[in-house]
Amino acid sequence: MRSNYVFCFLWMAVLSPLGAQQPVLWSNPSFEDEPAYSHPPAGWYYCDRAGESPPDIHPGGFFNVNHEAYDGRTYLGMVARDNGTTEGLGQMLATPLQPEQCYELRWQAARSDTYLSVSRSTGDEASFNEPVRLQLWGGFKNCGQQELLAVSDLILSLHWQEYRARIQPKQAYTHLFLEVKHDGTRPPYNGNVLVDHLSPLLPVDCESGVLLADSMYVPPSRPDDLPALVKQLAGQLELTPQLRLSESLAWNENGRYRQVVRPVWEIGRALQFFPEQSIELALRPDLSDATAEMLRQQLWYSLYASGLDEGQYKIRSRARGRSWQGSGPVQYRLR
């Protein structure tokens, strides 16, 4: 990834003595949703010229794109077109960026060697398989591109690879946008990029690159009373003003991180000590379908990220019947 800043920095699993800073979290950074074409993932909105199609959620068997997800179940697919247009999407951040603060961003990207669609210039079927770049913009409203924060190298690999950027925003941007960019050395062409597993924007010291957020790993432990622990953790689940479950970073033993609903993640870690038991989670019946679907994706991803075997959990859209426990937005029952 290219920007105006140096990329060589230390990745340290300690709390920096320079003072802890809070990471800036995305909504749905792993692009989890039902596979669909021309449909942005939950938590993201579409940014492109009117009349052009939105990005796609893969894998769904469409356009001959066959990659498996790097993280979770699904990932993002975006294209650039031979008429000069490109796809993009963005979101409003839960907390704004801090001006002049340096942040690290990591993500996984790949190129599909086939991405069959219709050429905007000829009207014929074409493979959108050329390499493109990925841009990151900051702004203050939906699709309002105020500052170009970083531009990647051409994404050439047909396999998932990690990319990194160091950014230093000039203003306290409230919105971020991902956008495809043509090579720029030749006329517009048909290309694609696949994206998965965005990291939070992690604050780092601008000179040393030292991480300014706590990244300490806490190993799981077997609870003495599993039902009591689940009840306690489920009671911590509340909706934010954006009608989401609050998320934070969870670090594994290798120093890698995922963005999770921490009480749910802790439930998943605890259940690993009880392979004979399972849990069902469901959303409160009065929540809207859109809210329930977003929360369901958050619950699934947090249990997936905990490492819990999929046979030990089930997530339902609505809590129906009398056997559910809990009075918050998420109800549960142990089996």
What does this structure look like?
With 335 residues, the chain is of the alpha+beta class. The protein has two domains: 160 residues, Jelly Rolls (Sandwich); 109 residues, 2-Layer Sandwich (60s Ribosomal Protein L30, Chain: A), CATH 3.30.1330. The protein is 11% helix and 27% strand. The protein is built from three helices and 18 strands. The strands form five sheets. Strands 2, 3, 5, 10, 12 and 13 form a six-stranded antiparallel β-sheet that branches. It has a five-stranded antiparallel β-sheet with strand order 1-4-11-8-9, with no helix packed on it. A three-stranded mixed β-sheet has the order 17-16-18, with helices on one face. The relative contact order is 0.17. The N terminus is likely disordered.
Write the layout of secondary structure elements.
Blueprint: E1 45-47, E2 56-58, E3 75-80, E4 88-92, E5 102-110, E6 116-118, E7 125-127, E8 133-139, E9 147-151, E10 161-167, E11 175-181, E12 191-196, E13 202-204, H1 226-234, E14 248-251, E15 257-260, H2 262-271, E16 279-283, H3 289-306, E17 313-316, E18 330-334
Parallel strand pairs: 16-17
Antiparallel strand pairs: 1-4, 2-3, 3-12, 4-11, 5-10, 5-12, 5-13, 6-7, 8-9, 8-11, 14-15, 16-18
Helix pairs in contact: 1-2, 2-3
